Amino acid sequence: MQAFEVNFDGLVGPTHNYAGLSVGNVASLKNADQASSPKQGALQGLAKMKALSDMGLKQAVLPPLERPDVYVLRQLGFTGSDAEVIKQAAEQAPAVYAATCSASSMWTANACTVSPSADAADGKVHFTAANLSNKFHRSIESPTTSRVLSAIFADEKYFAHHQPLPLGDHFGDEGAANHTRFCNAYNSAGVEFFVFGKYAFDNNKPAPVKYPARQTYEASQAIARLHQLNPNKTVYAQQHPDVIDAGVFHNDVISVGNQDCLFYHENAFLNTEQVLNDLQTAFGDQQLHFVKVPAEAVSVEDAVNSYLFNSQLVTLSPGHMAIIAPGECQENDNVRQYLEAVVAQDNPIKEVKIYDVKQSMRNGGGPACLRQRVVLNESEIAAANQSVFITDELYATLSAWVEKHYRDSLTEKDLADPQLLVESRTALDELTKILNLGSVYPFQL
Ligand SMILES: NCCC[C@H](NC(=O)CCC(=O)O)C(=O)O
Fold first, then answer.
1. Distance, CA of 237 to CA of 276 (rounded, Å)
2. Which of 12, 165, 217, 243 would be 42's cystine partner, CB 3.0–4.6 Å?
3. First to last CA, the chain
């Protein structure tokens, strides 16, 4: 049976804002306190989804979470009506309040890790929502994310859902941002590649010193166990601590893989040669394409500023891949020149397509952060919720929905407006009907 990579992009939420919440993420800190545009952000994201769908790729959408999270604020001791909770929190603990307002669920690469049925011993598609332990504002995402995933992939015959790993630094898990899969055709068993930032249970191993390593080796191993992966087809690699300290907070800021191709920066991994050998051994007889970007052509700093590697690498026809890159790649001379050169070389990357996702980029999220890849065969696609797949009609409906409900501009002051919660809930309630999700948000339960 044929299988496809389906990209599930996150819709930018109605409270999209820049609050400088992610230490180690250069863009997040640099753009703190700038005004954001939720409307522009959501429309930019939708335009990318539509473009990929128009290329003949399978494209779907994941809804944003409800923000501000007044339930977490209540857990932290704020009381009264929702408006009172918001007012107290914004006045008494503005930083905590800002964290509960983040629309960070838009980066669905971090929502979960997914293993296709071809890789799992029980023949089911496995999902583990990421605990996102390292950042408070993200650690509160998983309960609703889990409900959304279960609402879309409900049929237990095909889909297995696991709880997030235990919270805390030891099992810090950032989802698919640190996970890539290599395969021949999408329906064949693949090699699952887990990249981690540090060993949590061994302090003698190398680790970054300036910025946090968000994903641990032990977390990656736990996911592989839960997903019933074949150990011979599972490869682990440590991200180079120096690149984490240079602002590469997830592996998808320094490498991206698709089918038989790994596009990576030469400084991405510790023990690179070993990593490439392990991948090739697990992959088998067929040759993997390792497209190495030398530091001489593109420095780590250029990679972090342009988000060259936070591109999507998609297959348009057999052996013909395109890089879906953010506009910032055109603004950086080294990166632009490199991209012009790479498509002329002997490798599967034949095209570069540029999209404007600036609203997301200012928080450190490029095209790859905005999507979760779910490989599904025809039966699994048929068993999933059909209302989340992008068609011309759904694109038009969602664009009109954004135009109706989203604000043009949002500043820190606006976040304290209790009316924003009312607006968001009204919008999300309508969205769950459009996407046929049932009740997934706390205010609906
Ligand atoms: N995969 C991209 C994730 C980007 C995300 N940024 C943020 O949460 C920034 C939010 C802010 O600073 O307002 C992060 O660092 O996890």
1. 9
2. 12
3. 38
| Rounded CA separation 155/384 (Å) | 7
CA–CA distance, 19 with 200 (Å, rounded to integer): 28
**Which homologous superfamily does the CATH classification assign to the domain defined by 3-240+364-444?**
Succinylarginine dihydrolase (3.75.10.20)
pLDDT digits (tens, 9 = 90+) for 393-445: 999 999 999 999 999 999 999 999 999 999 999 999 999 999 999 999 999 99
Output the ligand 1 site: residues, CB below 6 A: 18-22, 25, 28, 102, 104, 107, 109-110, 135, 138, 177, 249-250, 363-365, 369
- Say if CB 375 and CB 3 are below 8 A apart: yes
Catalytic annotation present for 369: yes
What is each CA distance from 49 to 7, 356, 439, in whole angstroms?
Answer: 8, 12, 25
Q: What is the mean pLDDT of the chain?
A: 98
pTM: 0.98
Question: What is the band of 199 on the pLDDT scale with cuts at 50, 70, 90?
Answer: very high
- Residue 104 to residues 3, 19, 108, 422, 445: CA-CA distances in angstroms? 30, 11, 9, 19, 22
- CA 265 to CA 43: how far, in whole Å? 31
Residues 56-108: pLDDT tens digits? 999 999 999 999 999 999 999 999 999 999 999 999 999 999 999 999 999 99
The annotated binding site is made up of 19-28, 110, 137-138, 214, 252, 363
Q: Atom 8 (ligand 1): residue with closest C-alpha?
A: 104
Pocket test for ligand 1, best of 12, 18, 21, 106 (most atoms within 8 A of CB): 21
The strand order across the sheet containing 3-10 reads: 58-62, 3-10, 371-377
Average pLDDT over residues 325-333: 98
Backbone angles phi, psi at 43, to 5 degrees: -70, -35
Whether 161 is a known active-site residue: answer: no
d(CA 357, CA 109): 15
Confidence of residue 33 (pLDDT cuts 50, 70, 90): confident
Q: What is the ipTM of this complex?
A: 0.99
The residues spanned by each domain of the chain are 3-240+364-444
